[in-house]
Amino acid sequence: PLADTDFTGLPPTVTISAECDPLSSDGEAYRDRILAAGGKAWWHEEAGLVHGYLRARHTVARARESFSRIVDAVAKLGRREWPYPLTVPGAARRPSTPATGHPID
After folding, report:
1. Are 87 and 42 in contact (CB under 8 A)?
2. Are 76 and 82 in contact (CB under 8 A)?
3. Neighbour count for residue 74 (Cβ, 10 Å)
4. β-bridge mates for residue 15, sequence order
5. 41 secondary structure, DSSP code
6. Is the dihedral of CA 13, 38, 19, 83 positive or negative?
7. Most distant CA pair in the chain: distance in Å?
8. What are the two backbone dihedrals, phi and then psi, of residue 28, each rounded to the nearest 5 degrees?
9. Among 20, 53, 15, which Cα is nearest to 33's?
10. How far lies 64's CA from each of 46, 56, 58, 60, 84, in Å?
11. Shortest CA distance to 11 belongs to which of 42, 40, 33?
């Protein structure tokens, strides 16, 4: 998606990436481009986890917690809720936790 030149009109977007993954900074950059285009986006970096960590969600507590966070995010987006802080491009590397929910519109 980062090769695209137009980030306007995208739906509200939640991106979750692993800290120990070469693609992690892509999640941050994607969030920043959506925000710069006037959209809603939130990025969360899972500290200390590696690429592919979701395969361990049945045996590793932190992977299971992240999977639950992903399922919760998809459910909230489906209900048109946006419980994430409104951020600006280039926001802190370490994202904050979700805030009180409010409608997407």
Report:
1. yes
2. yes
3. 11
4. 43
5. E
6. negative
7. 40
8. -65, -45
9. 15
10. 12, 8, 6, 6, 21
11. 40
Q: Which residues pair with 42 in a beta bridge?
A: 14
DSSP E strands, the chain: 13-20, 41-50, 81-82, 102-103
Q: Write down the pTM of the prediction.
A: 0.80
Distance CA(88)–CA(33), nearest Å, equals 10
Whether 52 contacts 23, CB under 8 Å: no
Question: Are residues 85 and 96 in contact, defined by beta-carbon separation less than 8 angstroms?
Answer: yes
Calpha distance 95→87 (Å, rounded): 9
Cα–Cα nearest to 28, from 10, 50, 2: 2
* Residues in Cβ contact with 35 at an 8 Å cutoff, skipping those fewer than 6 apart: 41, 87, 88, 89
Q: Which residue is it, tokens 């980062």?
A: 2
pLDDT tens-digit readout, 32-78: 999 999 999 999 999 999 999 999 999 999 999 999 999 999 999 99
One-letter amino acid of 6? D
